[in-house]
Amino acid sequence: MTRVPETAPPAEPAPARRVRDPLARMVALARPRGTRFALGVLLGAAATGSGVALMGVAAWLLAKAAEHPPITALSVAVVATRALGISRGVARYLERLVTHDAAFRTLADVRVRVYDRLARTEPVRRFRSGDLVSRLVSDTDATQDLLVRGLTPPLVAGLTGGAVVAFCTALFLPGGLLLGAALLLAGLAVPLAAAALGRRPGQRQARARGELSTALVDTLYGAPDLVAYGAMDRAVRRVEQADDELTRVARRDSTLMGFGAGASTLVTGLTVWGALLLGVAAVEGGTLHAISFAVLVLTTLAAFEIVAPLPAVAARLGAIRASGERLFGVLDTPPAVAPPLHGQAAPEPGDAGLRMRSLRVRYAPEEPWALDGVDIDVPEGRTVAVLGPSGAGKSTLAAVLLRFRDPDSGTVDLGGTDITAHPVDEARRFITGVPQDPHIFTSTLRENLRLAAPSADDDDLWTALRRARLAGEVEEMPDGLDTEVGSHGARLSGGMRQRLALARALLAAPRILVLDEPTAHLDPDTRDEVTADLLAAAEGYSTLLITHDLAGLDRVDQIYVLSEGRVLQQGTHDELRARDGWYREALRGTGRVP
């Protein structure tokens, strides 16, 4: 039976929307807080408008005072100057408070969505680790950069600039038209030029940041092997080259910002000179009062505060767009595990028997089947081994059982219920185990164990350790359960890490225990010992042992031999040992069959 995956939840971007520009998609992320951003734009307009108005009122006050009028004639302007000075600061503070609060909340939502997508789709291995860190940190933070610097300032400039141009046009038509043209040049043409020039450097900057992060992570985590093979110098040079490239791109970015600032300053100066020349001619011709002339010139000078932030923002748009593409590269990763279809909740499994029928999985339409019609039974309370060479499909089988992949067709039935009918976390409550390379967290033994059962007390932890044959070693440690295991469990031996992972799995009290290549990285002597301990600890569970190692298979109830995604042989150890085929040949290669 083929299970049709459910479409993505409404909260995720629909496929049709993925062709949209990344900048538009990043802005759309702020839609739930559109009211806050609208308020921020109004407050920003009030702050900028207060600044321009303050300069205009001050110009009127100074020019009027030169005529030595009665003090009462200046009182309104004096009060207005104080009020505008105060309102400018208050409005700017409130604007930053509102917009940054909305941006940070949106950024938090984006991070949750990214982490949720990683948790649900398991695309971590599709990206290099250092590059993924860059996507999660720098590229995600670009959302905040766009919302705070790229969304509010242009809208504020549109509102305030229009009002100022209207005021200056009413005051003196030629001066208002000149100011309007200059603001369009400084606030539109210059930023568009900066954005066009900054697009390719911005893309290179995002890539360079990812390369540097990848090189650093690879060098730090691979340091022991790099030193052992004399490759540390090459790794350090790779980091230096990545840093040099990022530095070169950053310099180009600074040059673009300097171009924008210089062009804006040039336009500002030329416009003020133009306003002066037009104003002087108008005053001499009697069409403009001297006080109005002073207001016009200083208002024109102050008006460029409105568009001053825009060129720098535009120069950054290329980098922000590239970051958006990388961010949505994670968010748009197709799910490897689809949520269950909406409807009635799946019933609890009736027993702990596992039944796989016609199971087929492949990683891409053009690739061969990793599993091709696999039928396997794990009866309740029995131990079954799946054996085969590298590339046989064993790891794919473990990924399906642990809900890291959906089958393309076929069923995985647990106690009468298809596991794909359950939510992922619920399915993992029924089926859990020890992966091939279990992750040991940099913490204490106690915290590593309680990861599976946060409410477990010390008695529960010791019981699990005894079942995993690890209690003796822990008792000999000076700090017992509070022993620090080091980075990735570096203070524990390979066998101890496997036993610790098994104890953690036992604490989860699953119905099915999956042991995926539990002795893959152990030496032969330790391998036999750990296999015996794992099988002893799993006694009473429905257990599936996935392995390429022949040690301990005489203790399992049934063996399935996989080859090229198909079941090649099945039977007990004695049956397969006596029968010609892959298993007998493998045993002969180890000297266990004459």
UniProtKB/TrEMBL annotation:
Subcellular location: Cell membrane
UniProt-recorded name of the protein: ATP-binding cassette subfamily C protein CydC
Domain of life per record: Bacteria
Record-level GO cellular component terms: plasma membrane
GO terms, biological process: cell redox homeostasis; glutathione transmembrane transport
Gene3D superfamilies from the UniProt entry: ABC transporter type 1, transmembrane domain, P-loop containing nucleotide triphosphate hydrolases
GO MF: ABC-type transporter activity; ATP binding; ATP hydrolysis activity; ATPase-coupled lipid transmembrane transporter activity
Family the UniProt entry places it in: Belongs to the ABC transporter superfamily. Lipid exporter (TC 3.A.1.106) family.
TM segment ranges: 37-63, 69-86, 155-173, 179-197, 256-282, 288-308
ABC transporter domain mapped to chain residues: 354-589
Keywords from the UniProt entry: ATP-binding, Cell membrane, Membrane, Nucleotide-binding, Transmembrane, Transmembrane helix, Transport
